[in-house]
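Sanity check. The docking grid for pyridoxal-5'-phosphate depends on where the pocket ends up, so I'm generating a full predicted complex first rather than guessing from homology. Inputs follow.
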Amino acid sequence: MNVPVNTPVFNGNEKKYLMDCIDTGWISSAGMYIEKFEKGMAELVGQKYGVAVSNGTTALETAVLALNLSKGSEVILPDFTIISCVQAIVKAGLIPVLVDCTEDTWNLDVSKIEEKITEKTKAIMVVHIYGLPVDMDPVWALAKKYNLLVIEDAAEAHGLTYRGRQCGGLGDISIFSFFPNKHITSGEGGMVMTSNDAFYERAKQVRNLFFDSERRYIHSEFGNNFRMTNIQAAIGLAQLEQIDKTVVRKREIGGYYQEVLSDIDDIQLPVARTEYADNIYWVFGIVLRDPERKADELMNKLSERGIGTRHFFYPIHKQPALIKEGCCSLEQLADSQFSNSNYISEHGFYIPSGLGLTLDEQKYVVDELKKLL
Ligand SMILES: Cc1ncc(COP(=O)(O)O)c(C=O)c1O
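Predicted complex below; grid placement will be based on this.
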């Protein structure tokens, strides 16, 4: 049997909306699907605005630039995340300050943020990891105490709630990715969400080369072409219409794994529930408890059996690109501070959990995994 790590599903209005783009000729970054998708996402998360962009990485860059922080300001972020987060900070001329994750939720350890705050700190970037949100109450309390902005990376968190509030609506500025492994996909795509008028206006400028609104081809700053196309938004909108069903289905997939894998002592499973959230299992992660066993070993054996897996993220403090950039002091990157992030990145991986996964495929994955463990 061949079980890919993810298979996207298109069983809503995707084809109809796509055909409409082609029939009407609206295929670039102007068109009604962009507006509808932006409005729909803003409504879903309870923010005033959405700014559709080309992917989650450019959404992060747009969000950070929209805040217009002075060069050299510090932004706190988790060590266990994707490179896009730190890259957005560094490219904006800001200094990343890394914090370890917790052992169980794999999310930013909020109890370790305050010790990293200095006079230069201007923002905290939270990243909801693998289907469970960051504990936001302590983050908001620190943001208020030290007058910091909250940047929320909800790239993996469509339909996830924190104490009943939708992720993507929890930051001064927030972002989504719509890559095909996400709960809402547009092929490639991303969106910046905010309720702040100034951030919204600047995000639109960053996305579109800072075109002067009065006289085209005059540009007050260097910007980017980060625009999403109407074609992408057409698919995204159709996917957004299905988000409630998607979340139910993902919880079903995750719930099944939890039930049948919970008796294996050798592996740590995702936290199903905390006092502030229920996991939506964007992916289903597994961490090997035996320090002698590396994720690679098991991933290779699963691959030989036709089962797709993916590594966990690699710790940011060890990223060659960051070290080369030289923007962090060696003290800031000291390995001993990041023991949880180090451990899970070496011993963690995720197994198939895409929307297209069948029960037979899931049973096969579980059987093979149990044999190997
Ligand atoms: C937490 C997080 N942020 C940002 C991104 C970047 O999104 P994209 O792949 O659309 O550039 C990803 C990608 O999966 C992600 O997981």
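Relevant for the grid: The chain has a mean pLDDT of 97.
Also worth noting: The chain is about 35% helix and 15% strand.
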